[in-house]
Design goal:
Elements: H1 3-17, H2 21-32, H3 37-44, H4 50-89, H5 108-122, E1 126-127, H6 136-139, E2 159-163, E3 169-171, H7 178-185, E4 191-200, E5 211-221, H8 226-241, E6 246-253, E7 258-268, E8 278-286, H9 288-293, E9 302-309, H10 310-318, H11 331-334
Parallel strand pairs: 1-4
Antiparallel strand pairs: 2-3, 4-5, 5-9, 6-7, 7-8, 8-9
Helix pairs in contact: 1-2, 1-4, 2-4, 5-10
The structure holds 3,4-dihydroxyphenylalanine (DAH).
The site of 3,4-dihydroxyphenylalanine has 11 residues, from strand 8 and strand 9.
Length: about 350
Amino acid sequence: MDELTQLIESAKADFAAAQQPAALEDAKARYIGKTGAVTMLMKELGKLPADQKRARGQAINAAKQAIEAALNERREAIANAALEAKLAAEAIDVTLPGRSGHTGGIHPVMRTWMRIEEIFRSIGFDVADGPEIESDWFSFTALNNPPNHPARSMQDTFYVDRQDGNGMQLPLRPHTSPMQVRYARTHTPPIKVIAPGRTYRVDSDATHSPMFHQVEGLWIGENISFTDLKGVYADFLRRFFETDDLVVRFRPSYFPFTEPSVEVDMAFTTGPKKGRWLEISGAGEVHPNVIRNFGLDPEKYIGFAFGSGLERLTMLRYGIDDLRLFFEGDLRFLRQFN
Ligand code: DAH
C-alpha cells in the first residue's frame, strides 16, 4: 500500500472510531487540518522536481477528497445516530392504551349511612348534621351528665387543646347525642330527626376505632312511648337487613340522658347467625332534664332517642369481623362493595 492509501485507510479508521462530533473534528484536523498529514504533504509539493509535481499533486488531492468524503459520511452517521437516540428517548408510544381514570366507589360505612337516611326519611324523619368539635355542655351537661358525674367515664373522650367561653375544654364529640339538643332547641315539636356522623373515642382494637360513626335518632311529641321506639327500631332493622327474619329485644341499661334506658339487641331467626343476640344500639325515653334542656316542658313532651353504631350495622350486614378493615383503605377490601 502506498503512503496515500495508508493515510486514507488510517483516516477512515479514526473517523469510524469517533463517536461524537468533537472527536470526529479532532480526527479531521490530524489529516486535513492546517497542520494535518495531507496538508503537510501538499506543502512539500514545492520541493519536488517540476515534472513530478503535477502527478503528485493530483494524487494528494484525490486522497484529500477521499478523506473528506469519508469525513462527511461519518458526520452524517453521527448526526443520524444522535437524532435516533433523541427520538427514542422522547418516544410517545401511541399504541399504548390510555390510563383511564379509576371509578371511585362508595365506602361500605357510607352505604350504611345513606341507607339509614333513606329509611328514616321515608317515615318522616329529618336528617341533621352538626359539629365534631363540640362544647362540653352539648356533649355532656345538657345530656344530664354534668362535670364529675360518674357516667362521664363511660366514654373515653378526646379533647382539643382549646377552651370554650365557660373555660371548659372542647371535646371531640364521643357520640352523636349532642345533636338531640342542638336540633330540639332550634325546632318545634313534633321533632323527628336522625343525625348520622363521625364520633371519637380513645379506643382502638378489632371492634373499636378512635374515629367511628353513629346515628342518633330522636322523636319527641306529646305521647311518644317505648312502643313507638320498638316499632320504629324493629321496622328499621328489618328494612336495613332486608329481612323479616329477625327479632328485637330491649335489655335494661343505663344512660344519663334516658330514663328508662335500654340496650337494643337483635337476632336473626334464619341464616348462619341464627339465634345469636347482637347488641345493636343504645336507646331510651328521653330524660325530663334533657327535655328541659331542649327548651321544652317535660310535663308536655316525651319521646325516645337512640344511638347506633354505623360500623356495627355494616359489619353485621356484610359479615365483616374486623372493624379496622374499614379504615385501612385496602382496595381489595373496598372493591367488594362496589
Ligand atoms: N350516646 C350513647 C353512646 O354513644 C348511645 C345512646 C344511648 C344514644 C341511648 C341515645 C340513647 O340516644 O337514648 O353510647
